[in-house]
């Protein structure tokens, strides 16, 4: 069989080389100058789609840079790769899988057959099961073993089987059923499970065991602990009313003792970090109800349609990806900070960490060759305004440049007076401050107006000067709703996809998490005494010895 020709290194492409030359010409241009030179910069550098607005004008790019970035996107095959994903080609090469999270949110009747599987029929079938089950729990007709309705839901899962549902339940708490308390246990650390079990009652608690593979060590241990805790009060026959499972692995669910009737399946073409749209979103559907869950899917679908159809220049995920690529490549930005100015998005940065870093934290191309440029940046962040009082100092005056994504809703979902204006004022003020900075002369004028002596002014000027010229995006929505949350997540999914195409990495595998898992199994056996201590390095040996001594004491 003829192998396809390897994709050329990104640095060998004509558009990359043009970009490199152009970036050098912009190196000493300040964002203030770019704004001064073009009064229409905001309107020409904003994109609207699926209920979101992206303002990327506060990035150190001009129209030429954007044009060249789009040339690069075309040269790297973003359009063909995008179509390959949507149509179910096996673009996850190392696992021989299609990548079809977009099919989970496509409207009923969207025909797609992959490897003989009628994707639409299967997706709709599971959605109907999710609807029937969540309706019953929410209307109180699903009863616990003593005949009481369910009032606590505990989702047991980790990674994509935790981060998505937890983030979305928090984000949509204004739409939630107040009668259902949502809990999430992910960590193998027993403190996590213990803290949750201490708050719930076995008679009225429903556990969702969420695991794509149903072999993840943390989730299996937590699920067994929850089962043992339940059996202190209930009996084996009662488990069916209190344990449901979400997985691709039916046999493992049955082996665990959960009835197949209580199983909500999904498929290997849904990556863990892209799975909140599948039955992994069961906790979300329980919390907000099936109607709002459907709106959540519809919001993501609207972004999918935009991503698939809009020309690259007006394509929000493409623009976000290309500006991010520019910052990573030409401004040497090793991290991106996510700053949602919305408390309900408090887990959004954590969610994006897995989405982006597990997808594009790669060092070899799909052809197995080292990538010749830096790939995925570190993603981190926290909500404004809290972040302002914690680490924004470094972002304003530190020596590294960290691009920031500001995310805000124009209207709040509460009606407390005064708060929302204060919140938005801070959000816009920060993006302005990062962009403009404050020159030494401006600092001098301020201090002179305060009447400070000249020698004190000169001593203070370097400390009070802000370089500015720090890139940021602002993403606005009218309100944080199930629909806009769906669109926002899909925006970042597609951004991640586009960057993966540029770097020619497989954004859909995660082999990097395996080595630690294997070593942990080995060390666990040494800690429990099932295996004799092996020859590790002196540090690992020393740490194991300390843990064994503490256990024996
Ligand atoms: O170890 C990483 C990972 O495979 C993630 O990609 C995934 O989201 C998480 O573990 C949980 O996996 P599972 O849903 O199979 O338990």
UniProtKB/TrEMBL annotation:
Localization terms from the record: Cytoplasm
Chief subcellular site? cytoplasm
Molecular functions per Gene Ontology? glucose-6-phosphate isomerase activity
Instruction: List the active site.
Output: 358 (proton donor), 389, 517
Show the InterPro entries listed in the entry. G6P_Isomerase (IPR001672), G6P_Isomerase_C (IPR023096), Phosphoglucose_isomerase_CS (IPR018189), SIS_dom_sf (IPR046348), SIS_PGI_1 (IPR035476), SIS_PGI_2 (IPR035482)
Task: Please list the reactions this protein catalyses.
Answer: alpha-D-glucose 6-phosphate = beta-D-fructose 6-phosphate
Task: Name the Enzyme Commission number(s) assigned to this protein.
Answer: 5.3.1.9
Which is one Pfam family of this protein?
Answer: PGI
Query: Which keywords fit this entry according to its UniProt record?
Result: Cytoplasm, Gluconeogenesis, Glycolysis, Isomerase
- What does UniProt give as the signal peptide span? none
State whether keyword Isomerase applies: yes
The annotated pathway is: Carbohydrate biosynthesis; gluconeogenesis; Carbohydrate degradation; glycolysis; D-glyceraldehyde 3-phosphate and glycerone phosphate from D-glucose: step 2/4
Q: Which SUPFAM superfamilies match?
A: SIS domain (SSF53697)
The protein's role, per its UniProt record? Catalyzes the reversible isomerization of glucose-6-phosphate to fructose-6-phosphate.
In the record, the note on similarity to other proteins reads: Belongs to the GPI family.
Q: What is this protein identified as?
A: Glucose-6-phosphate isomerase
Which species is this UniProt entry from? Janthinobacterium aestuarii
